[in-house]
Amino acid sequence: MTDTSTPLSAVRDLTFGSIAGMTAKLFEHPFDLVKVRLQSQPTDRPPMFKGPLDCFKQTVGKEGIRGLYRGISAPIAGAAAENASLFFVYNKAQAAILALRPGPDGGLRELTTMELGVAGATAGAVTSFVLTPIELVKCRMQVQMITHAAPTSAVTVKTMLSAPASPSSTVTVPPLARPVTTAARPAPLGPFAIIAQTVRTNGIQGLWLGQTGTFLRETGGSFAWFGVYEFVARKFIARRQKHAAADHIVTKADLAPWELMASGACGGVAYNVSLFPADSVKSTMQTSAELHPDRPPPKFFPTFKQIYQTRGIRGLYAGCALTCLRSGPSSAIIFGLFETLNSKLGWIFDTRA
Questions:
Q1: Which residues form a coiled coil (predicted)?
Q2: Which of 173, 218, 261, 282 has its CA at a distance of 20 to 30 angstroms from the CA of residue 292?
Q3: What are the φ and ψ backbone dihedral angles of 248, each rounded to 5 degrees?
Q4: Domain of 58?
Q5: Which residues contact 1 (CB under 8 A, 6 or more apart)?
Q6: Torsions phi, psi of 172, nearest 5?
Q7: CA atoms of 150 and 56, how far apart (whole Å)
Q8: Tens-place pLDDT, residues 12-36
Q9: Looking at the domain assignment, is residue 164 inside a domain?
């Protein structure tokens, strides 16, 4: 367990969490952009992309490499806020659990994997309220390219959004009542313009559109993220303890970077697999203002039902495979960098040093 007793421990968690989060975001943003575009394709028109690879090719072909980083400003700020909040609340939640269930004679003890998962869920629940406005801005910026793509005649399309080789059914989609011409397309909005437009249209609460989805994803996902990470890391620790000196207690500080990163990668995959449909619904809700500006803000459960009825389970898991492929390395970077900074530079924030 990370020491939370020093006065500067909070600053340490916030600082190292921010650095780790921003570094990982630079790696993962192109993958996240493809995921959001796959999730946010309108259900009342043919899918614009056949799958992740097609989405990647179209994005680069039409927008260049810079298109893969569309909307990066909000995620960079969000990654700093998200991971700083996650690690800060995670360590504080561990301290709270120890206060409720102390070790022998009121001392420290090693928390169980389940308790660490609960601490992670607590961190995710708190962080969800920080993340929702940031993700709303990010998602809207990421789909502005496909805002007005629309068919002018009825067509038959595949309903699946995942791997092109997967089996799928077909459905005839009618044309939109009022296709939007290229000349009528508005210029892409920046993050501050999106915030201003959202507040002007739906009030401050409009920035938290999709909060239910974010809360479910972050609470359950963070339970899996931290829980699986700690579980795998403890397996590495136990393996090293067998070969350590009798008087040496192996900790995460003794693990090699690859062991920390492998543990983090496992946690990242578990995070996304656990509650991915909630993220799909959240992305669809948050991009509704771009795709259907004349409609009121959607609700969580009606949106879930609409996705399921029109595209089935595949629609709810659109982009999941791609997300797992990028979340493994991304979480490996986050945990590996956070733990390395903590073991190498944590003394800076220790008043007892």
A1: none
A2: 218
A3: -110, 125
A4: 9-349
A5: 91, 94, 98, 108, 110, 111
A6: -90, 125
A7: 19
A8: 888 999 999 899 988 888 888 888 7
A9: yes
